[in-house]
Structures are given as structure tokens and as C-alpha cells.
């Protein structure tokens, strides 16, 4: 009888261990798959996507709130600054560095924290309410790069998908977050509404080139900030696994 109980106990222990190990293997596999999804997104290998896959919600949250996101931002900023230091802006003041704003200079993490870190499909109205509060903090590694390129003598041009009607709140938000001395701040006019970001930004870069600017660097969290026409000599892609703008 004692032997039977012992065998039963052993069996239960084995079942328990098996079930724990399968949970941890499956969550580890999920983490690996979501890591692969994130890297595929950063490398622009995914098609257009509307929201973070449900099984990756926890992964993206952990990445955005943990050390990974900051470390990735840091390396982009440092590499960009290193490239900028290899250039010598000319005295004519026409060597330019373009920065996108959202998730490049300013962080909307407080907004996305309340909206599932990209799990929810993007809601323009709710996001605009957040923009109008003007409370987005600086992305610190980008602020460092911003100051570095200004000190090196580049003209800084801000090119954002935000609307012209948000100019005033955007200017206040940028200044409060520590950004200053930009040369131009370009926002979407009514004529630009409805254009895909890649076209809108290409057209604006083309205008800059017509104005005699040499676009040497471009920093953005979306490939649509960086690709298209009149592209910069080098582009720097900041991480963003929360949303995709075509
Ligand atoms: Mg952006």
C-alpha cells in the first residue's frame, strides 16, 4: 500500500514537472517568435500591419518598458552622431539633418501604455487628444543627437506627419522637452492630408533639395520617414514595434 502511494506521488510529481516545463517552453517559444517578428518589422521585411499580434502584446510591452528599447535607441543615436562627426558642414548653411517627431524626438509611450502598446488599432481622435495635451517627453538619446548635430553646424529640419493645426502645441511640447533652434518645422497642410507618409515626406525632401539643402542625415522611427525619393546620405531607423505607418 505504501509502495502504491509512493508510485502515485511520483507519477503526480512527473506530471507536474512536465506541465511546468511545457508552459515555460511554450512561453519561451512565444518570446522567440515575437522577437523574430519585431526584428522583421525593424528590417522592413513585414508587409503593412495594423496592430501588434495579440500573442506578442506582453513581449512588446516588456520591450518598450524594459532596457531593450532604451539600449536600441542609444545605439542608433550614437551611430548617427559618429557619422555626423565624419562630415564637415559647409559655411553656406545648407547641410541639413532631418528629424521626424513622434517616436523619434518625442515619446508617446504614456499614450501607448494606456492603449496596449500597439495592441489596439490606431485611433486618430484619441491620439489627437493626447497630442493636444503637449505632454510627450523627450526621447533622451535623440535629444543628445539633436544637440550634437546642431553643435556640429547642421541645419535641423523637423518633418512630421502631424497636422498644421497642431503647430502651436507641437512647438510648445518640443521646447518644453528641450528641443530648440530648428531651422524649419514642416507639418501636413490641408493639401498633404490623405497622402501616404512616404510620398508626403519625399515631396517635402524634394522641396528642401530644390531650396539648395544637402540632406546628409535623416532620423525616423518609420521606414516611410526614410525611404522614397530625395533620400538622405544616411538614414537612421529608430526602433518602434508599436505601429507601422506606410
Ligand atoms: Mg515617427
Can you put this structure into words, describing what you see?
- This protein is an alpha/beta fold.
- The protein has a domain at 76-237: HAD superfamily/HAD-like (Rossmann fold).
- Helices cover 50% and strands 12% of the residues.
- The chain is built from nine helices and five strands.
- It has a five-stranded parallel β-sheet with strand order 3-2-1-4-5, with helices on both faces.
- Helix 3 runs parallel beside helix 6.
- The longest helix has 41 residues, at 2-42.
- Bound molecules: magnesium ion.
- Magnesium ion (MG) binds next to loops.
- This is Acid phosphatase.
- GO terms for molecular function: nutrient reservoir activity.
- Rounded to the nearest angstrom, the radius of gyration is 23 Å
CATH class of the domain at 76-237: Alpha Beta
Order of helices and strands: HHHEHHHEHEHEHE
Global mean pLDDT: 92
Inertia-based shape: globular
What is the CATH fold-level name of the domain at 76-237?
Rossmann fold
The spatial strand order of the largest sheet comes to 3-2-1-4-5
Main β-sheet description: 5 strands, parallel
Q: Structural class, from helix and strand content?
A: alpha/beta
* Fourth-tier CATH superfamily name of the domain at 76-237: HAD superfamily/HAD-like
Ions and ligands = magnesium ion
The count of β-strands is 5
Percent helix range: 40-55%
Pfam families: Acid_phosphat_B
InterPro entries: Acid_phosphat_B-like, Acid_phosphatase_pln, APS1/VSP, HAD-like_sf, HAD_sf
GO molecular function: nutrient reservoir activity
Signal peptide: 1-27
